[in-house]
Structures are given as C-alpha cells and as structure tokens.
C-alpha cells in the first residue's frame, strides 16, 4: 500500500542519509558525465562542454538540493540540519549565546513563576467537589462600613428550610480550644461547624469519617483532627479513630482525620483561617440563638445547573420574607448576597497578581528586544555568509527557516533554564512571604504551566527572530558581493535604535509602577496605627468553661495573671484585650446608636467591639483624647461605661464632646451577648485593627469586668523595657502558677502583627521593584550595545572627523547626543504609556495619586541617568580613537 511505502521511504531517508547522499552524488556525476560526452560529441572543447552541461543541469548543488527536498521526511531532515548548524553557531558565538540565554532565562523564568501562582490562585478551581457550585452567603446591612456580615443561627436555619435552589447550607465559626492530657497543654484554632459542613464542601476524611448532621447541637462529643495536628501531637497514630482526647472543656472522641492537603479558603473578612487544627460540631443548638447575633460564616452548594444570579434572586425573596416575618430582620433591613466562593476568596489578590503578570510580560518584551538587537548585530556580521549561501542557490524561505530555527532554539534553551529559575522562585516565595497570597504554597510547575512555558518560548523565539530573519534574507546579490567584508546596514541600525526606544519605554512603565508602589509602602510604614508597638509582647489564652464556669472566676483569673505579669523582670505594664490588631481571630462587631435615635435608624451602623482590662490602653500607649481610661471600679456593681474612638465620637456627635453621652451597645451579660445602655467616659484615638491603608469601622471598648468573654480567647499585651529572650518562658510560668493545664499560644511581638498589616503592600512592592530593576538592567545593556555597535560602524566617519580637526569633546558630544536622543524619546513615550496605565493601579495605592508628578520626574531622571552611564563608555572609547588606526580600515 502507498502509505506503507511512504513510511518505509521516510524511515530509510531518515536513517540512511549518507548512503543515499553517496548514491545521489554518483547519479548526478553520472548524468553530468553523460551530458559532457554529448557536448564533446557536438564539437565543443572539454571546458566549454562541461560549462554547457552545468548550465543545462542548473547547477550540481541546486539539483542535489531539489532531489533531497523531494524525499519523504526532507523537512524533518533539514530541521535537524538546521539544529546542528544552530548549535555550532551558538558554540562559536559564546558571548552572544550567554547573554541571550541569560536575558531569556530571566524573562521566561519570572513569567513562568508568576503564571504558576496566577494559575494556582485565580484559574485553578478550589480543591473541593464541584467547586463551581459553592457560594458564600453574606448577610448585608445598609449603612455599615463593611456591608458583608456573618449570619445568625436562626438565619441559617431559615435558609435551610426555605431555599429550593441550594442543595444545602453549612456554617462555621472559628475560636480556640485547649488540648490537655497527653504532653504539654496546647492551644489550637478550633472550628465549630454544622454537622453537614464537610458534606457541603464535598470533602471526605483521610481517616475515619466527617460529622453526621445529627451530631450538631451538642448531641455528640466528637472531634476531627487536621493532618498536621495528627502528625505532630499524635505521631500519626493509625488507630487514632475512636480514641478520646481531653480538651479543657470536654472529653471528645476522634472520628476523623482530614487529608494532608485540605485547607479552608475563605475571603479575609470572613476570619476563617486556613490553618485550623481541629473541628467540632456546634456544641449548642444554633437555631435557638438570638436572631440578631451574627457569627456564622455560611456556605451554600447550588443544585446542578442552577446559575448564581437565579440563586441570588431566591435569596432576595427569602430576605424579604424574613424582614416581613421577624422584627429583628426588619429593624436591621437584612439582605442576603451570594458570591462565588472562589471569586470571593481571591478578590483581594486578583488585581496585584494581574498587575504583576502584566509586569513580567513587559520584562519579557524587553528581553526579546535585547535578543533581537543581538541577532540584528549578528546578522550584520553574517552578511557574507548569507551572501555565499544565496550565491550557492539557497532560497529566501530556506534562509528564513534556518534563522527562525536558531531563534526558536535559543528561546527554547532559555525557556528550559527559565523553568529551573521558576522552580527556585516558587520555593522561595512562600518562605519569604507566608500567608500573603492564598494557595501560594501549592503553586507548582504542573502541566498547564509547562505548556504555557513551552508556548511562550516558541512565541518568544518567533517574536525576536522574525525581524532579523526577514532582514538577513533580503540580500541583493550583486551589491552584497561588491561590498563583501563591509557589514554596515543603515536600515538595521535604525531598527536597532527603535528597539532600544521600545525597551526604554517599557522600562519607564515598570519603573513608574515600582515607584508608585514604593511611595505607597513609604506612606504605609509612616501610618500611625493608634498605639506604640515597640517593646510589646503578646500572647493568647482561652479559659475552659468547666473550670471557669462564671464571670467571677474569669475576672479573678484575669486580674491575678495581670499581677503576675507585672512582677516579671523588665515588665513595665500588662493588660488584656479581646482582639489584637491584625490578628486572625474572628472579629466582634455589632450595632450601636446614641440616645434619642429614631427607631428606624437604631440598627443601621456598626462598630468593632472590644472587651479590655483597665491597663490595656496604658500598655499600648494609645492616646487619650478626652475623658478617662477605665478604672478597677468599672465592674458589674457600677453603671455600665464605654470608651469610644475619635471616629465614632465625631460621626455620632459632630462638634460636641462625647464624654457623658449614652450609647446603646452590645455587651456580654452572664455569657450572652445583649444590647444595653452605657455612658461614654473616654475618647481614644482610632486604632487600625484591620488595615494600615484604610479605616474600616469605628470602635467601642467595654471594660472586661462588665463584659467578660465567655470561654473565648483573650489576648494579653506586655510592655517591657527591653526584649529579654527568657520572657516567653516567664510568661508560661506566670500562667502555670495559676493553672498548670492552661496552654499559652501566639507568643509574639506586637511589631510582628503590625507588619502583617502592610505585608501585601510589601510583597507587591518587592516584586514590582524586582521587575523594574531587571527591566532597567536589560534596557541599559540594550542602550550600551546599540551605542557600542554604532561606534564600531562609524569608525571610518569618526576617523575622518578627527583627521579634519574634530576634538575629543566634539566626538563625545556627537555620540552622546545621538544615543541619548532615543533614550529621551523612549522616556517620553513611556511617560505617556504610564499616564494611561497608572490609574489601573489606584486600588493598590495609598495616599499617592496614580499620576504622581514626583514619581514620574524621579523615574525620568533615573532612566536618563542610567542611559547616560550606558552610553558614556562607548562614547568615551570613540573620543579616544586613533584617527590613523581608524582610517587604515578605509
């Protein structure tokens, strides 16, 4: 059959090239000899006979080439020939190869690394069953600073009963717990969930099982462990299922261990950290909670083929029914909003990641321009080679194919090195900036990333190779043969300058972005958080309900611990607070309204609520603006009092003193959250708890002795004269003196927490600055290369000018003016592009305008300075040229 014959011919041609070439040589030589004999017989002399025979054949080399092209597999064979030739050329031009590979390695490597992160975070679906069906359901209240709030237990119960488009709803609240019994007491992050929570996610346990719905509400004392806790505390005990473990509040039976790669991926404001160490079902019937006590983060699983907008319409209908049926929801003007779980979880990092990806693509464009410049210079040096190949019969398409093969091979080699660089970057990023980007640690060189890198390498090779290839293939044979040995090509020189202009423009854009982020970071670092964090150590504890069943015992413990801490060496003061700034512990916020507020406006604005000891403000050195701090007498036997921040005071009583006014706030009474009236006794400066870049909500502070936290985490702050290394051990000893089974967790400095507030800005600034430095370096190399090449090409002209009396200063100015003109034009084009693109960064900036004149001016100055330095060396070399040596080449 014909196809079998073609395959056989292809294999024969591929593996028997030398024998076939020898047969071809014999055939062609035989045919030529026959033609020569015919010409001799016609009366021509031998030289003329051979010449006529060659003309009739069309040239020996051309005939052989046409015959080889007609063979099966000729394209593949010629491709391998081109590869071998390209490798020989790279080995011969080592300096060119090293610099080109270095540029491509950096350009493709950072693109691969950022694409890996982008793919893992933005493109890869969440690691749950049918993740597109998952949505987070938020309670929305008008007038609130952040309108998205958690739901109450009854609200979740109503959703379960009324929804028809959702398969199920689950909920979670994250607190803390203490493990005791085996080993040292340990405080852990403990997730309290509905019985169907893991079923809604579609996640199974690696060992054992997840919860049953009927285990919710305190009906079963069971617990599920994270893989990390199981490995660390229980030494991967394979028989852990069914065993009991002791906590400070109860004895629980282990029913499951979650998979090693399981993590919860929620938006930041949900206060659901990814590193929860254990889960228990809600130990109380959530449907019996107050309807206005919102603390549960709700997730819902849509039914198959139900679009999110349709589900949102159903939620709006449910919210209308709830407002009509219950005064708590009508007073709050409750609305419900469903957001795709994946989109919600990554919304804060989407813009920075896309901006960084755009930045690395611009770096790659600069690298391509540099390599294209190198290839243009190399093609000028290869003019004689291309001329000889053309004279020997090589077609234009054949030469273009050869040159494109070289550029694509160069890009593939650079891409291979870039993969190695990307692997190193992916290992370094989570170590340098843990927790900045969700799922950053799972970014890897998977199949989509490697496919992206391969495609990027090929496209890159074509981009920087096509122009030099087309230029080198346009050879006018007669002119090139006449000018053999002269490599001057004005058209290519202009093209190289245009490429440098493009490099400078792109570098300006990247430098502008980095400059704006650097100025943003400078402003963030100067932000006053509302307290002084230096020399403050913090830690957290949770009081178990069985040993501390009432407010009196909890208050006694807190007072005694603060006294123990105050006596430690070097300690200046100590205090306690329910929530530390920038901590990942679930926030406490609720409604407030002043006396005299109309009923329809009473539950419309919210504030963060904090339960604190009297000494906490002095320990934090938070400025008191008016009134007084809390005193030891502010207890359950005296009227309720609160301290508010200046934001709340100015918003509620503009132009008036807040001290002495009354507020209705959420308080804690006998372990329950209730609203009550309290008198404002002080005003403090606003403390930034959530972000250094924005003020989220005003704050209300309640004395712990009037609102003691029931079985919830309390954080302690300890101000020291210095930072003794033994303080963590002394803190543990101070706690052990009161309760030896009470674990201490999260021992760290307050400076560490403040740094968390600006960590994403630091991350974005570092990466953008890194890209800008790479861009500036590559652009400076490009400027230097073009200037050096221009000087080399103009050697004769410079020699003539100097022979006619031009001074060194004249030559220096001539070279600098010609080169710097393109740098200046490139900077101006880059400024226009930056002005158009900078507004897209407005969401990342803080106290800096996108069109910041200072940043643009500094970038232009830096870029011109770098360009001047890059031009100065070749310009100086040109000015010191010996005119006789230069003219000798003429």
Taking the sheet with the most strands, its summary is: 8 strands, mixed
Rg calc: 37 Å
| Assembly of the depicted chains | single chain
Structurally, the number of domains stands at: 4
The chain-level mean pLDDT equals 81
Number of strands: 24
N-to-C CA distance: 66 Å
Relative strand content: 15-25%
Percent helix range? 40-55%
- pLDDT < 50 runs, ≥5 residues: 483-491
Structural class: alpha+beta
List the total number of helices. 28
Structural shape:
elongated
Model description:
Helix content is 52%, strand content 16%. The chain has 890 residues and is of the alpha+beta class. It has 4 domains: 71 residues, no CATH class; 192 residues, no CATH class; 307 residues, no CATH class; 198 residues, no CATH class. Strands 15, 16, 17, 18, 19, 20, 21 and 22 form an 8-stranded mixed β-sheet that branches. A 6-stranded mixed beta barrel has the order 4-5-10-7-9-8. The longest helix has 37 residues.
Features:
six-stranded mixed beta barrel, eight-stranded mixed sheet, single chain, 4 domains, 890 residues, alpha+beta, 28 helices
């Amino acid at each position: 059959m014909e196809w079998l014959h073609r395959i056989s011919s292809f294999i024969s041609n591929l593996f028997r090239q030398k024998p076939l070439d020898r047969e071809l040589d014999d055939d062609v030589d035989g045919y030529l000899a026959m033609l020569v004999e015919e010409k001799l017989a016609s009366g021509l002399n031998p030289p003329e006979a051979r010449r006529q025979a060659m003309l009739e054949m069309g040239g020996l080399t051309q005939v052989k080439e046409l015959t080889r092209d007609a063979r099966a597999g000729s394209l593949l064979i010629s491709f391998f020939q081109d590869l071998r030739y390209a490798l020989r050329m790279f080995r011969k031009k080592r300096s060119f190869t090293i610099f080109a590979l270095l540029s491509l390695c950096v350009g493709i490597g950072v693109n691969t690394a950022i694409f890996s992160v982008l793919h893992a975070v933005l493109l890869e679906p969440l690691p749950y069953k049918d993740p597109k069906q998952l949505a987070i359901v938020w309670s929305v209240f008008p007038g609130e600073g952040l309108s998205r709030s958690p739901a109450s237990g009854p609200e979740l119960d109503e959703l379960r009963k009324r929804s028809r488009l959702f398969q199920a709803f689950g909920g979670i609240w994250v607190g803390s717990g203490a493990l005791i019994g085996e080993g040292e007491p340990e405080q852990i992050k403990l997730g309290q969930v509905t019985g169907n929570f893991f079923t809604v996610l579609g996640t199974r346990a690696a060992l054992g099982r997840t919860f049953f719905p009927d285990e919710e509400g305190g009906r079963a004392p069971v617990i599920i462990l994270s893989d990390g806790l199981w490995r660390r505390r229980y030494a991967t005990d394979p028989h852990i299922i069914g065993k009991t473990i002791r906590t400070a509040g109860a004895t629980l039976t282990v029913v499951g261990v979650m998979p090693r790669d399981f993590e919860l991926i929620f938006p930041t404001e949900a206060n659901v950290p990814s590193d929860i160490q254990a889960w228990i079902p809600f130990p109380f019937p959530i449907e019996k909670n107050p309807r206005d006590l919102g603390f549960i983060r709700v997730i819902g699983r849509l039914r198959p083929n139900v679009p999110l907008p349709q589900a949102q319409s159903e939620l709006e209908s449910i919210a209308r029914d709830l407002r009509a049926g219950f005064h708590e929801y009508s007073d709050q003007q409750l609305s419900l909003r469903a957001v795709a779980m994946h989109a919600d979880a990554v919304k804060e990092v989407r813009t920075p990641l896309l901006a960084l990806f755009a930045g690395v693509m611009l770096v790659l464009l600069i690298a391509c321009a540099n390599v294209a410049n190198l290839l243009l210079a190399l093609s000028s040096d290869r003019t004689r080679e291309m001329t000889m190949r053309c004279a020997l019969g090589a077609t234009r398409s054949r030469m273009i194919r050869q040159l494109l093969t070289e550029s694509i091979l160069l890009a593939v080699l650079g891409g291979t090195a870039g993969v190695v660089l990307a692997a190193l970057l992916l290992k370094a990023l989570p170590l340098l900036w843990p927790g900045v980007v969700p799922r950053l640690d799972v970014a890897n060189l998977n199949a989509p990333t490697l496919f992206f890198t391969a495609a990027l390498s090929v496209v890159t090779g074509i981009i920087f190779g096509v122009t030099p290839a087309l230029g080198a293939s346009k050879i006018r044979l007669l002119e090139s043969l006449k000018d053999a040995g002269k490599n001057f090509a004005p058209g290519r020189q202009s093209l190289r300058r245009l490429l440098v202009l493009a490099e400078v423009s792109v570098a300006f854009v990247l430098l502008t972005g980095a400059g704006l982020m650097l100025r943003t970071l400078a402003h963030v670092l100067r932000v006053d958080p509302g307290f002084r964090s230096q020399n403050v150590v913090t830690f957290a504890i949770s009081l178990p309900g069985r040993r501390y069943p009432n407010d009196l015992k909890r208050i006694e413990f807190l007072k005694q611990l603060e006294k123990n801490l105050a006596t430690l060496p070097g300690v200046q003061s100590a205090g306690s607070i329910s929530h530390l700034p920038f901590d990942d512990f679930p926030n406490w916020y609720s409604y407030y309204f002043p006396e005299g507020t109309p009923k329809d406006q009473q539950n419309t604005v919210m504030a963060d609520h904090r339960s604190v000891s009297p000494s906490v403000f002095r320990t934090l050195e938070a400025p008191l603006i008016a009134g007084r701090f809390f005193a030891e007498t502010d207890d359950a036997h005296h009227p309720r009092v609160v301290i508010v921040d200046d934001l709340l005071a100015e918003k509620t009583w503009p132009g008036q003193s807040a001290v002495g006014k009354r507020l209705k706030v959420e308080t804690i009474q006998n372990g329950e959250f209730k609203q009550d009236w309290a008198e404002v006794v002080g005003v403090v400066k606003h403390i930034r708890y959530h972000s250094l870049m924005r003020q989220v909500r005003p704050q209300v502070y309640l004395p712990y002795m009037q609102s003691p936290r029931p079985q919830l985490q309390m954080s302690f702050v300890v101000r020291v004269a210095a930072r003794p290394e033994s303080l963590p051990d002394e803190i543990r000893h101070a706690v052990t003196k009161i309760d030896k089974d009470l674990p201490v967790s999260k021992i760290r400095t307050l400076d560490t927490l403040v740094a968390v507030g600006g960590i994403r800005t630091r991350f974005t600034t570092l990466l953008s600055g890194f890209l800008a430095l790479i861009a500036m370096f590559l652009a400076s190399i490009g400027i230097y290369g073009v200037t050096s090449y221009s000087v080399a090409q103009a050697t004769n002209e410079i020699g003539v000018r100097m022979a006619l009396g031009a001074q060194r200063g004249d030559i220096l100015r001539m070279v600098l003016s010609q080169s710097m003109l393109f740098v200046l034009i490139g900077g101006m084009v880059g400024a226009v592009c930056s002005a158009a693109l900078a507004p897209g960064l407005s969401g990342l900036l803080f106290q800096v305008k996108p069109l910041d004149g200072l940043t643009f001016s500094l970038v232009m100055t830096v870029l011109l300075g770098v360009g001047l330095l890059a031009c100065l060396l070749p310009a100086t070399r040109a000015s010191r040229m010996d005119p006789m040596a230069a003219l000798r080449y003429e």
